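Input (structure):
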């Protein structure tokens, strides 16, 4: 059996997502999206390192371990830990959007240019055809080619669809109202997991009183929230009330700790670990 596993790592604030495709022949393909680690708080690094150690992997012998590492957008709670991740584990591809925040991006790009741990790096948009992760196909849904949001870095977030067999997973960064008004109708009907944008904030779900992505996200899709309780109190109470009023199946890192959404390409299931 082949399996796609997408784990929302409980990093306390911000995002970090580990992706693993198990190919059915005792082989695994790995990817990582975002890391908010600091010099003193290394939640995603520790989780990933222990994950590989439990699999009996010798990291030095396997580098580069990641098929790709993706920075969704240039905010510290998504990207400040990626240099250490890339240095420790290596990546064949490092992807990122075009951004106005070059103070964050420049250091990562400079590191990628010089480090033997990164084989190739480039900015991506919805015209970029991404290589598959094993048998999992990837599609960039946002950002559009040649467009950079001048007001909100959140709206430069890379939104990506992962498809395994008859199942799609949607990973959303911190994309807000502007994005969902334009691409919500492109959410595939076979979506079985949808990462709630911007940590479950009001801005990530509501467009005034409308709810673009929520209206187009299939009822059967499981929802996952990388919570950002401190200092921003995400997820927002109004967002949670929306989900509850529609009977949606919701998992959140501040309640469920590390959350793994899994599919064999037909069925889906969830496991999580309480602290």
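Output (sequence):
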């Amino acid at each position: 059996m082949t399996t796609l596993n997408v784990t929302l790592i409980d990093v306390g604030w911000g995002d970090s997502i580990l992706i693993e495709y198990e190919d059915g022949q005792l082989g695994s393909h790995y990817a990582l999206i975002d890391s908010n680690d600091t010099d003193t708080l290394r939640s995603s690094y520790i989780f990933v390192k222990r994950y590989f150690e439990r699999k009996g992997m010798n990291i030095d012998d396997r580098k580069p371990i990641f098929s790709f590492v993706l920075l969704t957008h240039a905010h510290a709670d998504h990207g400040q830990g990626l240099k250490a991740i890339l240095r420790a584990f290596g990546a064949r591809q490092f992807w990122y959007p075009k951004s106005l925040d070059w103070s964050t991006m420049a250091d990562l790009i400079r590191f990628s240019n010089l480090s033997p741990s990164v084989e190739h790096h480039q900015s991506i948009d919805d015209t970029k055809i991404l290589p598959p992760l094993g048998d999992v196909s990837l599609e960039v849904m946002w950002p559009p080619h040649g467009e950079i949001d001048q007001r909100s870095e959140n709206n430069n977030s890379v939104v990506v669809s992962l498809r395994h067999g008859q199942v799609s997973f949607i990973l959303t960064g911190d994309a807000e109202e502007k994005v969902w008004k334009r691409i919500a109708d492109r959410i595939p009907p076979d979506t079985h997991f949808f990462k709630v944008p911007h940590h479950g904030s009001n801005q990530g779900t509501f467009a005034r009183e409308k709810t673009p992505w929520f209206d187009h996200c299939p009822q059967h899709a499981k929802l996952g929230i990388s919570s950002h309780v401190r200092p921003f109190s995400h997820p927002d109470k109004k967002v949670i009330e929306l989900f509850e009023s529609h009977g949606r199946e919701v998992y959140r890192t501040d309640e469920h700790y590390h959350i793994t959404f899994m599919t064999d390409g037909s069925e889906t299931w969830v496991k999580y670990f309480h602290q």
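Notes: The chain has one domain: 3-273. The chain has a mean pLDDT of 95.
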